[in-house]
């Protein structure tokens, strides 16, 4: 009984993260719930005597369940010879909670491309790039070397970035890119041209004030898709430390929000005009 109580407590402690992992892996809320339920059944049958890292152990179980489900899904599609892949169906009654979950945990860029990855590529990418699981642990889940796991994630990342590049060819992207370039170069006039007269950035109000604040800044900020929307990210040692979100109306920036504690964001870095 004591062991079962310990398992229940650890599972409850990590359940939110496990559900988010399953949802990002599978792209379906109902399938994610099924995966977590199956993982709980496996937990109940497991020997827990030598578990030192319950969170990592539970992540491994959920990841393996999701991998099996992805491989089964792929097999069913391959068996439907000549048939086109089914379109993703929208929820019959999608409420605000469903929409928020989709936006926060998958994002537009990932929704477009994750289904095109192989199951192992998808697992390696999601675990490493979104949940920061080391390649050694990912390799153990896939029964591959850390180097092979790294290669899978790298291949998936290139495809995600390629899809993001295609989906981000929009006027808003160019406006954000121009703003970053003007900010880095200290071009006050160019910044003014990009801002609406009543633009705001945090507590700063008015185009001239906002332009003055950003002029000469943004030296290390990178153009990115943030949950599928063009924005900017400043990172330190590979970790996002500040995310800049832009509200753009009629071709002008009306608001800039700065999140200095970003979490659970789908971030895909984009090349600048110089890098293309």
3D architecture notes:
About 10% of the residues have low confidence. This protein has 276 residues and is of the alpha+beta class. The protein is 57% helix and 16% strand. Strand 5 and strand 6 form a beta hairpin. It is built from eleven helices and seven strands. Strands 2-1-6-5-4-3-7 form a seven-stranded mixed β-sheet, sandwiched between helices.
Can I get a quick summary?
57% of the residues lie in helices and 16% in strands. It is an alpha+beta fold and 276 residues long.
Topology:
Elements: H1 2-26, H2 29-45, H3 54-79, H4 96-105, H5 107-113, H6 119-130, H7 135-142, H8 146-167, H9 171-185, H10 188-194, E1 195-201, E2 204-205, H11 207-214, E3 222-226, E4 229-236, E5 239-249, E6 252-259, E7 267-269
Parallel strand pairs: 1-6
Antiparallel strand pairs: 1-2, 3-4, 3-7, 4-5, 5-6
Helix pairs in contact: 1-2, 1-3, 2-3, 3-6, 5-8, 6-7, 6-8, 7-8, 9-10, 10-11
């Amino acid at each position: 009984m004591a062991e079962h109580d310990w398992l229940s407590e650890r599972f409850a402690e990590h359940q939110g993260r496990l559900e988010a992992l399953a949802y990002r892996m599978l792209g379906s809320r109902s399938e994610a719930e099924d995966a977590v339920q199956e993982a709980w059944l496996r937990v109940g049958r497991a020997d827990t005597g030598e578990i030192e890292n319950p969170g990592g152990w539970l992540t491994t179980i959920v990841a393996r369940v999701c991998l099996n489900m992805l491989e089964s899904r792929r097999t069913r599609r391959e068996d439907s010879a000549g048939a086109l892949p089914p379109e993703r169906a929208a929820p019959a009654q999608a409420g605000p909670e469903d929409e928020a979950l989709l936006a926060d945990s998958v994002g537009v860029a990932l929704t477009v491309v994750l289904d095109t990855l192989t199951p192992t590529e998808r697992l390696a990418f999601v675990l490493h790039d979104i949940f920061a699981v080391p390649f050694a642990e990912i390799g153990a889940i896939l029964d591959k070397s850390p180097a092979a796991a790294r290669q899978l994630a790298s291949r998936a990342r290139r495809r995600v970035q390629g899809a993001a590049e295609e989906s981000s060819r929009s006027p808003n992207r160019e406006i954000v890119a121009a703003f970053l370039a003007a900010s880095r170069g200290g071009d006050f006039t160019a910044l003014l041209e990009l801002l609406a007269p009543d633009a705001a950035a945090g507590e700063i109000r008015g185009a001239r004030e906002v332009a003055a604040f950003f002029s000469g800044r943004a030296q290390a900020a990178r153009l990115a898709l943030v949950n599928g929307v063009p924005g900017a990210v400043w990172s330190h040692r590979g970790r996002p430390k500040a995310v800049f979100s832009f509200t753009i109306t009629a071709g002008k920036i009306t608001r800039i929000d700065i999140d200095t504690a970003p979490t659970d964001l789908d971030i895909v870095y984009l090349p600048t005009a110089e890098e293309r």
